[in-house]
Design a protein that fits this description.
- The chain is an all-alpha fold and 91 residues long.
- It has three helices and no strands.
- It is elongated and about 45 Å long.
C-alpha cells in the first residue's frame, strides 16, 4: 500500500454537503473515503482522455465521446464504485 500523506483541503459548503450526503446514504463510510474515491474517478477520467488523444482514432468526435462515456461507466461499475459498508449484525 502506498504511503499516505495528510493534506488540508478546503471545500465549498456545497461540496461538503455533497460528500456528507453520500456518507449519510451509506455509499462511503466517511468523508475521507468519499474524497479519495472522487480523486480516483478524476484520475480515471484523465487517463481515458489521454488515451483518446494518443490514439489514431477515426470516426465522429461525438461517437468517440459516447464510447468514452460508456467505457468510463463500465470501469466505474466494475472497478471503482464504492462498496456499501456492511452493517454489523448483532445477535
Amino acid at each position: 500500500m502506498p504511503t499516505m500523506t495528510p493534506v488540508q483541503v478546503r471545500l465549498s459548503e456545497e461540496q461538503l454537503h455533497l460528500i456528507d450526503r453520500k456518507v449519510q446514504e451509506g455509499r462511503y463510510p466517511n468523508r475521507f473515503e468519499a474524497i479519495r474515491d472522487y480523486l480516483r474517478k478524476a484520475q480515471l477520467w484523465e487517463a481515458l482522455e489521454q488515451l483518446l488523444q494518443m490514439g489514431d482514432l477515426e470516426g465522429d468526435e461525438e461517437e468517440i465521446r459516447a464510447d468514452l462515456q460508456r467505457l468510463r461507466s463500465e470501469v466505474y461499475k466494475t472497478s471503482i464504485r464504492p462498496k456499501r459498508p456492511r452493517s454489523a449484525s448483532r445477535t
